[in-house]
Amino acid sequence: MSSFLDVFRIEDTRNKIVTTVLLLLAYRLGFQVPIPGMSAEHLQRAGGGSVLGMMSAFSGGALGQTTVFSLGIMPYISASIIFSMLGKVSPTIEAITKEGASGQKKINQWTRLSVVPIALLQAIFVFTGVFLQDTSMIDESMREHTFLLGFIVIASLMAGALLVMWIGELITEHGVGNGASLIIMAGIIAQMPISLLEMASDEGFWQILLQISGIWIVTVFFVTFIHKGARRVPIQYARLTRGRRVYGGQRHYLPLKVNMAGVMPIIFASVIFVVPGLLFAWLEWDGLARIFSDTTGFIHVSLYVALVFGFCFFWNRLMFQPDEIADNLREHGSFIPGIRPGAKTSEYLSNVLTRITIAGAAFLAVIAVLPSFVTKDSSLPMSLQYFLGGTSVLIVVGVALELVDRLQSQLVAKGYDSQSGGNSGGPGWTKKDRS
User: What is the predicted pLDDT for the residue at 62?
Assistant: First the structure.
């Protein structure tokens, strides 16, 4: 509590928090602006189906709602992921990313520009795959004007996606934390009060609420424990003698997080895994469609876990390259104690990465599959089921932990002692500040 109050004693941090809250409120107000030509009765309609629910949870939007912010931050996230991967596989993009601030500025500008075609494609998908499939979402006066309606809907969704991207960048620049992550977190949490109010009139509401709270607390504890877990590889700096002075020789650690891939393997696996189910349902192959739609079936669980493991290894190998790390260590005169620099160091880091990836992939597989068994045959709304699902839990917990780290760094930067909660001579001030 003392550390929490110290955050608001710092004027700069207090202003950033207020700015973040106001921008998030402006983002949520966008969900009250309907798309022209849509039916007013369906303004608060939530997206259904596994594809829409998963994509809405990932984007912070609601693809089944007829509002201008339905796409959420998804186009910007998609563009960021594309350029993150290109930075590892394209020598040209990789060279630009190594140019420092100027290179990062170019990448950010290209990311913003690529949001436009990505938002266009996703808006077309939403219009043709959601709105046209359920004509009750369209106002009666516009149902016969498909071309005009499509132009209005696609333009509105694109404008909303660009506005959300702008709000996210404003939060990143003038607020606390990463704007895109906070928008996704706000989109997930904002659905909870509405879902709980819908269940308030049901019999046994308090029992269900206690059950949900228990599941959530246990899941958050488990996710936090793994999220903070890391394998610390010792790094020894070589000693250099300059005259009578000796430089270097300190030992540091290279932290390799257990869940290095974050939520990305679950996202990739969910997107790819849902496509066969939609295809089989469209071809009316009921047997195969039933296999892919049964989230607790043996074949469904086995394939889903295999995809999570595969994408976890793919993402970790793409983002963490042992050869590059080994070369950087050798260039800076550093080494791992007991391991020869160069190829041996790369081989050692590769083996460590493989073992960590197995543990992280197993954790992600459990988080992704277990909620389906817990919520099976339950009367919980779909929004609550997605909230208890692996994707939503990882996003919310990860963003919350990142936000806490940012606030603690603000306290340290401003001279506050966030650990002890303050000493005599002033609330939260260190001895250096009092002097």
Answer: 60
Helix (H) or strand (E) holding 245: strand 245-247
SS in 3 state form for 48-117? CCHHHHHHHHHHCCCCCCCECCCCCCHHHHHHHHHHHHHHHHCHHHHHHHCCCHHHHHHHHHHHHHHHHH
pLDDT of residue 114: 92
Q: How many CB atoms lie within 10 A of CB 220?
A: 15
CATH number at residue 105: 1.10.3370.10
Same domain, 155 and 222: no
Taking phi over 0 as left and psi of -120 to 50 as alpha, with beta for the rest, 72 belongs to left
CA 66/CA 62 separation, integer angstroms? 9
Same-domain status, 355 and 275 = yes
192, 220 Cβ separation under 8 angstroms: no
User: Could you tell me the two tokens for 141?
Assistant: 């006066």
Q: Which domain holds residue 8?
A: 1-202
Beta-carbon-side half-sphere exposure of residue 394 (alpha carbons within 13 Å): 25
**Per-residue pLDDT tens for 372-426?**
776 666 666 666 666 666 677 788 888 888 888 888 877 777 664 444 444 434 4
- Residues 383, 371, 271, 362, CA torsion sign: positive
Q: Judge whether 247 and 255 are in contact, CB under 8 Å.
A: no
Report how far residue 257's alpha carbon sits from residue 230's, in angstroms, rounded to the nearest whole number: 4
Number of structural domains the chain divides into: 2
pTM of the model: 0.74
**Cβ 54 vs Cβ 271: under 8 Å:** yes
103 domain residue, yes or no: yes
* Same domain, yes or no: 113 and 229: no
Clarify whether residues 127 and 163 are in a common domain. yes
Residues 373 and 229 in one domain: yes
What is the spatial distance between Cα 328 and Cα 334, in angstroms, rounded to a whole number?
A: 8
Same domain assignment for residues 188 and 76: yes
**Residues 280 and 370 grouped into a single domain:** yes
